[in-house]
User: Fold these one by one.
Assistant:
Number 1:
Amino acid sequence: MSDVRPNLLSARQADVLNALQEVFLAEGFRHLTIGDMAGLAHTSRRTLYQLGQSKEEVVVGVIDRFFNGMGKDALRRAQDAARVHDQIEAYLSASVERNRRASRQFIHDVENYAPTRHVYDRHQEIAIRELESIVRKAMQRGEVTEGTPALWAEMLGAVIRRLRDPEVLDRVGASRGDALELFGHFCRRGLA
């Protein structure tokens, strides 16, 4: 999948990736074989192997596409907001919505399979740098006057990383989407 760029996908390949994403979100992916994925996406193994040379590459491609879409949506939402607290809450809302659709099995599989956890970690670091950029611009406008953009980004990132931990979520009795939504509201008030 790493060799296939989103703009080079055929309509059929995009449909297959979308179908696999929905299956993965609903039931996870670790238990699926290439044959299972082909059947669930109503396609051939050959089409899947055009998307990746192995099950791992196909899975990583689907997960990368999922998080990439989330990141683009988050940026769009943040750009539509004017003030820093609205921007951060809007940015996090993309993750809230996508995580509400994710089953516990999907979250478990992403976190417990090294290749997909690496993809998630990479996208999370991108998100933290984007949040840092939002805070930096807010500081330049005088909306945020304490700390540094890097400090705010690290604090935001630390909370987001903690909210990825299923044990933490189980202990506090919250879904990832609920926790991120509450965190977004907290950021709205805390940065104001």
Number 2:
Amino acid sequence: MKTLVIVAHPNIEQSVINKAWAEEMEKHDVTVHRLYEEYPNEQINVESEQELLLAYDRIVFQFPLYWYSTPSLLKKWMDEVLTYGWAYGTGGDNLRGKQLLIALSAAGPDTSYVAGGYNNYTMSELLRPLQATSNLIGTRYITPFTVHGVRFLSAEQVQESAERYAQYVLNEDL
């Protein structure tokens, strides 16, 4: 299965986990597309991005949770690339049948993402807009790969998570 990993981290060089994940994925037969490196001025080449999406079966959005959402450039990318008539609506079936997988890192521990916990909502609830987007564009939403408490992980735990991430993303049976 041809896989595209879209990495959206505004400061990947300062990242611990997203950097390790991207580097691990680059060791495999996938394409790693780093949005903030590709578009430092946030001027997205929509046609190029749409052509890129057409070439893959599984699309992964990899990002750190920012204010209970995606980093701003990934949101802008979705707004500009996933257009009416191309990704949804009349004639907008170009992504239909592809898979969408979210790979997410969160600073807080998993216990903070429960009803009544520190953040009051589960991760599944917070990711609902991305799941709704997947439904709208006709992709099959794959259970997200999520790692919590990233600020507290040792270097060994970060590397283990990168290896688990690669195994998950590359699993043909998802």
